[in-house]
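Protein data:
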Amino acid sequence: MEKNDFFLKRIRELADLSYQRDIVTFSDFLNLNEQNMVNSLRQQFPQIIVESSGGYANAERQMVAFHPDALAFTWEYPIDCLKIEPKSLKFSEELTHRDYLGALLNLGVDRAMIGDILVQEKAAWFFCNKKMTEFFIKNLCRVRHTNILITIVDKQEELPSPKMETIHGTCASVRLDSLIALAFKASRSSMVSYIEGGQVFVNGKLITSNGYEPREGDIISVRGKGRFIYEGTSHQTRKGRSSIQLSLYI
């Protein structure tokens, strides 16, 4: 059985368990492709509500929850947010997303236990399955050569605001390939392989058509490149091109 078949089997098991026992069940943190596969199965569970969260608004990696329509009790996602900061700013390095993720995975942890990692200046915030919180606090002591401290973040206000770069440009038409080319400063033709290769998602849904027309406010993710928000068009130029504004996550 292929990896995707195992994954879909597990998703069906979680949905069936929720229905049979009248409980809430949760997946691990899923990437965009896995979230898309879950969405493709929704119609198979008419008696089950399927929701998702990554611990904060517009998270890329998300945990999916399955629960009966008439659930009688309140519940919450088993997600914690942990902050990593250096013990001494004076001796800290410039650390990247890759550095933090590598340090976490080097502990022997499955990637599915970890959600998004937000990096800002000398600190990082990452989301994890609640059952792993104590393990990370006890075992993650260093990122590269920097000795670090880990604390639990209790309030959403303590999370950093995402850094965005505003991009302006013009397109002959508001097509997916045109917007991606504008966002990542590439040619439309070079973006075709990303779209047709199943690497482009709009609001978590896989899109494989170059001519797909996003709507204002859509979040477009390109695996291996990044993601951005399509903010909309402002006016038509004299040559009939649309003036576009994007907000790129950096």
In short: The longest strand covers residues 226-236. The mean pLDDT is 94. Helices lie at 3-21, 32-41, 97-105, 133-139, 176-183, 188-196. The first helix runs from residue 3 to 21.
